[in-house]
Design a protein that fits this description.
It is an enzyme of class 3 (hydrolase). The strands form three sheets. Strands 4-3-5-6-7-8-9-10 form an eight-stranded mixed β-sheet, sandwiched between helices. A five-stranded mixed β-sheet has the order 12-11-13-15-14. Strands 1-2 form a two-stranded antiparallel sheet. With 258 residues, it is α+β, with helices and mostly antiparallel strands. Helix 1 runs antiparallel to helix 3, helix 5 crosses helix 6 and helix 7 runs parallel beside helix 8. 46% of the residues are buried. It starts with a helix and ends in a 6-residue tail after the last helix. It contains nine helices and 15 strands. It folds into two domains: 136 residues, Fructose-1,6-Bisphosphatase, Chain A, domain 1 (2-Layer Sandwich), CATH 3.30.540; 108 residues, D-Maltodextrin-Binding Protein, domain 2, CATH 3.40.190.80. The model has no long low-confidence stretch (mean pLDDT 96).
């Protein structure tokens, strides 16, 4: 029998907020930056933060599986599963930029049941449960009601990667919407959930980057899929789009055709 979702939510918020002390103890301080096999950076803060979260989850939910960026898979991912990205935006973190986040998602049978974005340097906690709504620091939030693409605020994450790999697509999306901003990491997705912006296009993500966001976006009233409009799963390519309304989602998909 699945764990009650209220228990999941309360534990996720508590653990994320307590874990925030770990990266903040290193933020804008001196530490060594290593490189992974894919040449992406990793720090002691990434590893210690995930270790803290894993320990806390193990104490609260010993039978749940965990997939984390730094330490991989623990237990089975077939049932109740946690997805953890301890520092989403390590490049931001190591350069003193405060828009790095912490991601936690809860899946049951592969379905996103809760999504959480914690912004340690901003002291913001976004959490959503599909069907029950979303909150920012305990106050209800929802996506914007924008339906016309020409009026939409569009954030384009990883613009250098999109431009390098799909130059024609980049030109299309850089001329779409009412306003555009280049961005990175998880915060623009949280801004979609809270109604601040309308669309976030993202590129080259891993499951621990996008799976925790789905529950938050959907709980707030939005839609999050891959660039072809397909449901996101563990096996997805990692090119994703989050939109505030079904109308905007349908309107942006033709621009994402490769």
């Amino acid at each position: 029998m699945s764990t009650p979702i209220d228990q999941i939510r309360d534990a996720a918020i508590r653990i994320a907020e307590e874990a925030s002390a770990v990266p903040m103890s290193y933020f804008r301080a001196s530490f060594t930056v290593d490189s992974k096999a894919d040449e992406s950076p990793v720090t002691i803060a990434d590893r210690e933060t995930e270790a803290f979260i894993r320990k806390a989850l193990g104490e609260s939910f010993p039978d749940h599986g965990i997939l984390g960026e730094e330490f991989g898979i623990s237990g089975s991912l077939d049932g109740e599963t946690w997805i953890v990205d301890p520092i989403d935006g390590t490049k931001s973190f190591i350069t003193g930029y405060p828009l790095f986040g912490m991601l936690m998602g809860y899946l049951d049978g592969g379905e996103p049941r809760l999504g959480l974005v914690r912004m340690p340097a901003l002291n913001e906690t976004y959490v959503g449960i599909p069907g029950q709504g979303a909150t920012l620091n305990g106050k209800p939030i929802q996506t914007a009601k924008t339906t016309e693409l020409g009026e939409a605020s569009v954030y384009i994450n990883e613009p250098d990667g999109i431009r390098r790999n799909h130059p024609d697509l980049f030109e299309r999306i850089w001329s779409t919407g009412g306003t555009r901003r280049a961005a990175y990491d998880c915060y623009p997705h949280a801004l979609v959930a809270s109604g601040q912006i309308d669309i976030c296009i993202d590129f080259g993500l891993q499951p621990y980057d996008y799976l925790p966001l789905i529950g938050l976006i959907e709980a707030a009233g939005g839609i999050m899929t891959d660039w072809d409009g397909n449901k996101l799963t563990m096996e997805s390519e990692g090119h994703v789009v989050a939109a505030a309304t079904p109308e905007l989602h349908a309107a942006i998909l033709p621009s994402l055709k490769r």
